[in-house]
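Progress note, project year one: complex with guanosine-5'-triphosphate.
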Amino acid sequence: GLKRKEVNVIVIGLDNSGKSTLLNYLRPVEAQTHDIVPTVGFNTENFRCKGLSFSAFDMSGQSRYRPLWENYYRKTHGIIFVVDSSDRPRIVVAKDELYQLLTHQDIRTRNIPILFFANKMDLRDSLSDVGVSSSLSLDEIENKSWHICSSNALTGDGVQEGIEWLSSAIK
Ligand code: GTP
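Model obtained:
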């Protein structure tokens, strides 16, 4: 019969950017939770899109756990990088983490797609997707396809659009 293709993605970004909230939205309604707590280490979540069966590694964004991220780079088929668009003071920290990702030996030479969520678009002083894109200098990314979506992980606005792009890019 038809077997779904299984793919791994890592979900990274600074602490409090909304990674777990975003993945919670992708769960079946009956499995969604209302109390999301800061991630310790990492969690895994599974979801499906466009005939792909995803295992998502939801990495803690706290600085003491960020060194864990690289352990998952080698076997990942795609990257989801979540940014809190309202956290203007820390966008430079997000940019630095992104740079370390892009120059990592397990990522640098591979053409793996990166989906950016400019999350928390509902907050009053949040940057637009274009603003986040220029703050992170995304147009300087070489040899990788990338896409950025504004999102509200609480309502799911923008989330499905992003995941559909990633699915097409991985396929
Ligand atoms: P770590 O586990 O520490 O790495 O954090 P995380 O990136 O998984 O963030 P988490 O999903 O725990 O969300 C952090 C806080 O932001 C929570 O209080 C969420 O309710 C809130 N939040 C997440 N997404 C949004 C959003 O789109 N809009 C608003 N207003 N709040 C959001």
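The longest strand covers residues 5-12.
The chain has one domain: 5-170.
No further modelling is planned for this target in the current period.
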